[in-house]
Amino acid sequence: MRVTFRKMFKNVCTFLSCISSGKSGALTLKKCLHSKPNFTKNNYNIIRGNYSHVEEEHLYYFRKLLGETRIVTDLSDLEKYNVDWHKSLRGGSTIVLKPKTTEEVSKILSFCNSNRLAVCPQGGHTGVVGGGTPVFDEVVISTELMNEIISLDEKSGVLTCQAGCILQNVDEYLAEKNLVFPLDLGAKGSCHIGGNVSTNAGGLRVLKYGNLHGNVLGLEVVQANGVILDLLSTLKKDNTGYHLKNLFIGAEGTLGVLTKVAVQCRQRPKSVHVAFLGLQNFHQVLKTFYKCKQDMDEILTAFEVIDTPTMTLVNEKLGMQSPIGDYPFYVLIETSGSNEEHDQEKLDAFLKSCLLKNFILNGTVTGEVGKLKAIWALREKIPQGFAKDGYVFMYDMSLPLHNYYKLVDDMREHMGKLSHRVFGFGHLGDGNLHLNISVQKYTPEIAKHIEPFIFERTVHYKGSVSAEHGMGFLKSKYLGLMKSQESINVMRNIKKMMDPNGILNPYKTLG
Amino acid sequence: MRVTFRKMFKNVCTFLSCISSGKSGALTLKKCLHSKPNFTKNNYNIIRGNYSHVEEEHLYYFRKLLGETRIVTDLSDLEKYNVDWHKSLRGGSTIVLKPKTTEEVSKILSFCNSNRLAVCPQGGHTGVVGGGTPVFDEVVISTELMNEIISLDEKSGVLTCQAGCILQNVDEYLAEKNLVFPLDLGAKGSCHIGGNVSTNAGGLRVLKYGNLHGNVLGLEVVQANGVILDLLSTLKKDNTGYHLKNLFIGAEGTLGVLTKVAVQCRQRPKSVHVAFLGLQNFHQVLKTFYKCKQDMDEILTAFEVIDTPTMTLVNEKLGMQSPIGDYPFYVLIETSGSNEEHDQEKLDAFLKSCLLKNFILNGTVTGEVGKLKAIWALREKIPQGFAKDGYVFMYDMSLPLHNYYKLVDDMREHMGKLSHRVFGFGHLGDGNLHLNISVQKYTPEIAKHIEPFIFERTVHYKGSVSAEHGMGFLKSKYLGLMKSQESINVMRNIKKMMDPNGILNPYKTLG
Question: Quick check: B250 and A242 CB within 8 A?
Fold first, then answer.
């Protein structure tokens, strides 16, 4: 069914009233944490490294350094640092340290290194592969009190901040100066900039602004032995010696602890539009994407895809529904630019052409802030729906576009009646697929049926087993699927060089 | 003087006829090489590392591997590999090897490593800091025969090619597919992609597409011991283990020899415009830049500045002149987008507003390909002018914008009558200044008067002594000005780990 854009717009209003009526059943993080998973060390049969245990003498040092208020040792207070946000992992840390300054981090690491105490650096603890969750009794170094914005050059857009700044807070601060952070993701209300950089987080703006390797200008990092590395360049071009900062981007805290970050922020767009489209099949999704790049590349900010099972989940579990009726596939396109009228014209012409060519079946478009947010909520709240659909195996793949949805089809066939549903959605514009599988209840048999098949299939399709979430704890054992032995050897040599005692985030990344 | 855009356009035509009349005195690379500089080892008093010399037994191996035709040993043929393009450096290599495949590079390095023969990887040999020029008798490994495009995914824009592909050839190949390489620079007709990546080359498109750390998706690298590292991911998002490829971007061939590169190319813009403006002072240049970002950020591709001495040089030495008359400062703005009409409207509105606010005094704008090229030639041919202005000390700085031109003023004052002229021009949009100083004749006294003063002043202004050209041979001794001892220690440890015998491009980067 084709509708005019005016007609489409009415649909958005219906949709909005549905959201505001409170049908949405958003699940808070707190709720998740009320039930406790088993200890990771038992679930995964991990052998503890040869590290010291935290003793009274260590506690004495930490208390002297940070005072009582910046140390957590109470068992119930420790839970939120020990359990990951979707309750699949549980560490046994007995102490969380909350430094405020780089010097404190330096002293902590120097002490831990000398005393062979393993540490687990932790940001907003929003990761989904357990990179920031302790496995045994690692000393958790939380960056939550390292949340100061150090400087902003409004003209050049260069922001320098401490690693514990929350992404959303930073972006709101930047909004006041007509700037935008070059990264946006669902967990923005909790995740820390340092964690984002440590995991080379991707998210929603990669299509427009590129990845963090291109956007991070400088870092301050504390090495395992406590030595502070000042790599805090604030220049867009700086070709002096090896680009050490890039070594820490995506190293998941296994090579050093990030304390400060300098980022190239961008001009905040004056005009933002969102289109929400219904499509017949995945082939048309690809055609629409290619046409979108041809027709309006410079204003394209996001190109997201959602399949029917995912939309059904959002509808059933969160009470939200598609504003344009039911279609096999949905696409969310965001544009941003400097001229409202130009952007609207481009988007309108593109959509009309897509309708004419039968690439899309229906669609709605808006430039109003409230309505934009409501459409984005459909995409961003998807993870909250999973928390209500039994046990969900969550994956984050990267695939060549022609293979993107093949993996979802394959997994649906492979799972048969074993799964409740197989979901495919994600940042199609970057080739990034989130493939989730819900089952009635977790069993080791189902887990074995899924893994390593799903990763092997991904590699078969020339994809990556981790697009934007990193290897963390959960995926580290599959590193060999992605990297050659020669590459892994170099990684291990770097790790050994940077952290000879192996105290930094053990059991992660390289396993 | 304010002129209407129609009037401005006439100016461009006059300017074009001037260029096509042959007044331009382009200096070819060949011409430069007719005179020979002194040997670098003598000029700079360098001590040769403890490497073997190339003997008959080594020649025998290389001949067997590559055949006679892919080895250069003739003294006169060796010159172009031994002398850098602006004739300030001269190595004494006795052999140049021209492998075609990764496996050949692997065998060469394995052999050189076992025999303790130092090597100098060389691309198009267009660098200006001597990164690709041998210092003593290093074995030159030229990538000039490694020039195959391996694959192009036209839909995703991912190109994979051998390291020796010439930038311009690749960009022309991409143009046929409506794609564009995310890098452009003056030496594009000669420089190799591998050299670009090894030096983290910047150039003209960084403002729009970001740097190579963001755009290179994957690399194939041969390590010092001949082991091939397959880091050739072609995915936009791939977070599996340490991002090793970034370690080689900008490492100037001191950590490994690049053999293949995968790059994220972009949609070729349908509409390109260039504006050439005259301004009263540098303060107005900055105001114009900030307004430009506000008014048309998404279509801004380049923002270049040229000062009066530089324009005078271009006029005097190359017979080219400003199409808008004489002004203290000139700005070249390039926009690119998907809609001709929209881009024109944005640019017109921006220029009108700048005229009204007195940010700019005059200007000309064009969207015609021939005229675009003619205006760009004014900027791109500047380096050719220097070759005719006595001896020229050439620098490539990065500075916070508020300090950008202070360094030029300082150097003018510092040089007094010692210099003929001090020139300031560059990629202002990235904070990248090319500061050149011409003198009647090179003397060690003048060199000492300039250096290290110019670098210390740059650091005083929170800048970088190398924005886009790297450290190479010439700047390596100033690494300590830019990096902390802790950072240099880490760099040295990485070098030692990756190249224990130090055979890869000695005397470069880390000195």
Answer: yes
Interface contact B241, partner A, CB < 8 A: yes
- pTM of the predicted model as reported, rounded to 2 decimal places: 0.92
Q: Which of A84, A116, A142 is the last residue of a domain?
A: A142
A326 interfacial to chain B (CB closer than 8 Å): no
Same domain for A413 and A402, yes or no, is: yes
B476 in a domain, yes or no?
no
**Residue A320 and residue A216 share a domain:** no
Q: How far is CA A365 from the centre of its chain?
A: 27
Q: Angle at Cα B74 formed by Cα B71 and Cα B80, nearest 5°?
A: 85
Domain range for B101: 30-142
**Residues in a beta bridge with B331:** B277, B305
Same structural domain, B333 and B262: no
CA distance B66 to B99: 7
Single residue among B111, B142, B173 that ends a domain in this structure: B142
How many residues does this entry show for chain B? Answer: 511
Q: Examine the domain organization and report whether B247 and B159 are in the same domain.
A: yes
| B33-55 confidence digits (pLDDT tens) | 346 889 999 999 999 999 999 99
Same domain, A177 and A284: no
**What tokens appear for B61 in the block?**
């191996």
Tokens of B124: 């198009």
Cβ contact A94:A78 at 8 Å: yes
Between residues 100 and 139 of chain B, which touch chain A (CB distance below 8 Å)?
none
**Number of domains observed in the structure of chain A:** 4
Q: Contacts of residue A398 in chain B, CB cutoff 8 Å? A: 235-238
Rounded to two decimals, the ipTM of the complex is: 0.92
CATH number of the domain at A404, please: 3.30.70.2740
Q: Most distant CA pair in chain A: distance in Å?
A: 74
Q: Cβ contacts (< 8 Å) between B247 and chain A: which residues?
A: 242-243, 246-247
**Interatomic CA distance for residues A508 and A397, integer angstroms:** 19
CATH of the domain at B168: 3.30.465.10
Mean confidence (pLDDT) of chain A: 92
B123, B145, B256, B244: which is closest to B194 by C-alpha? B123
DSSP character string of A50-80: S-PPP-HHHHHHHHHHH-GGGEE--HHHHHH
